[in-house]
Structures are given as C-alpha cells and as structure tokens.
Known about the structure:
This protein is of the alpha+beta class. 28% of the residues lie in helices and 31% in strands. Strands 8, 13, 14, 15, 16, 17 and 18 form a 7-stranded mixed β-sheet that branches. A 5-stranded mixed β-sheet has the order 4-3-2-1-7, with helices on one face. A 4-stranded antiparallel β-sheet has the order 9-12-10-11, with helices on one face.
Amino acid sequence: MITKNIALLAGGFTGEYEVSINSAKNIAACLDAEKYNVYTILINRDSWFYEQESERITIDKNDFSLVINGNKIKFDFAFITVHGTPGEDGKLQGYFDMLGIPYNTCDATTSAITMNKSYTKAIVAGIHGLHTARSIHLFKGDIHDTAAVAARLKFPMFIKPNNGGSSVGMSKVHNVAGLHDAFERAFKEDHEVLVEEFIKGREFSIGIARLDGHIKVLPATEIISKKEFFDYEAKYTPGASEEITPADIPAAKNKEIAEIVTEVYLRLNCRGMVRVDFILLEGTGEFYFIEVNTTPGQSAASLIPQQVRAAGMDLGEFYSKLIV
C-alpha cells in the first residue's frame, strides 16, 4: 500500500482560528495512519508552518513543501479545514490549483462566490421549492440610511457580515434604533453587510458530499438555540443550544429537502463536503435558504460529524472518500 502525504491545513486569519484547530485535530485523529502521513500545517498572517517537537518548520510556498531532517516532503493532497479566509474564500484553492495539488473543497470560484452570502442567494434563487428572505446588501463606503432600510424591510431583521462565518458580528434588531450599532458591529468584521428579514420557523443544517462519484445527502440536524438566535456563543458554548440529529422531519419533507440541497450543490458547482443551513417556515414548512458553508466545522461535536455518525458511516472512512 502506498502511503499518501496529506497536508492538513488549519488556522487562518479570522476569529475562527481556534475552531479550525479543533477541526484539524479531529480529522487527524480519524484518518487511517496506515494510509496517510498527516502533517498539520498551521496558517497565519506571518507564516505557514509545521510543528514537530516544539520546532516550527516553515513551508516553502514556492512548491508547498517541507524539509524535515534533511528530507524534502511534498504533498499528494491538501485537506483544507481553514474556516474563513484564506481557506474558505478561494485563496488557498487558487494557490493549490496553480501548483497542481488536489484538495478536498470546492474550487476557487465556487469558494469565493459562496463566501459571499448575497451573491450565493442570487445564484440559488429560482430553485424549485427554495425561498430566500428579503434582504439588502450594504457596502462599507456607502451612506447607510437606517430609515431607508427600515422602510424597505420588516422588523425584526438580521444584520450580518456578508462574507463572515460562525455568526461573528451578527445581530438581531427589532427596531430602527438598533440598526446603527448593528451596522457598526457587522462592519468591524467585513466591508460588506447583509440585512435580512427575520424568518420565523425551525432552523436546520444539513451536510451533503460527493462520495465515490455519487452525491450523498446526510441526515439533517435541527438547531434549537437557548439564546435569541444561533450566534457564535450559542454555537461554541456547551449547553447554549440543543442539536437534534437526525432531525424529526417527516419522510416526504426529508425527500423534498434532499432534492433542494442537491440542486443547490449542483448549481453552485460544489465539490467535497458542504453544509447548507435553512429554516422551515412556521405554519407552511416552506424551505428558506440561509447560506452554504464550504469548509464546515469538523470538531468531534460539530454538525457534519454528528450527521455522518447518524447516517451509520465511519467518520474516518468519510474523510478518506474526500481524498482523491
């Protein structure tokens, strides 16, 4: 058996750095050591490096290689688990495309587009059975007239960084007086902000991946936040939310959801595993698209690992199928 050298990329330039580190630890623990030599490569603004016995070995970015004890190590595959920039927005994907190194995520174009919530909504609009909340896309350099926003959309509203992840910088606003502070909070995280009308209903997240050439939709997770909404604290504080996997959804509705998210995956030209977040509208059960996450969290308690286990699959085997 030929053992592949796998670069497991973690870290990044955002507030999700630690989340990414935890994802990498879980992936490394699950991958078969007989099949893969896994090197966790930490990425920050100052350097890209591999740590070995407290020694930092810097990556040669010319060919993405390491020199350890005089031996040059090149990689057969890059497993990207950097949440946010540069691992989720297409930058690393473009770099690996130029070097000819395969990787586990969507390509550079899809990664860049799906990082932009507003553009993603525009692309998936029109998919049969899929609805989106009414919204306004704001840019940092523009004048932000709170009265004009209040006139166009109904309260309550969600104000969120357009390109952010993990709900960092997100606010739920109930009246015009709260808009200014919410804009400021979101613009601290991004140069673009998305303002959306609140959709009342049950919130879900569902994983989907191409495995062995076939698209596999995982069991959905229902998210019941004990806070007003599923923000960063609710996501990463034990006990702040309840996650039910598999979600209690009738079989016919599960089939409809699977068809919609499969169409989302195909229309956006996704690769590897992604996670689609959505709401089933109270009263009607209509599917409201929230966003797609192309490098979803992979810590032991994260949603995709929960869903893989609920599908009766081994997590190590699941990750192995993403390495091509």
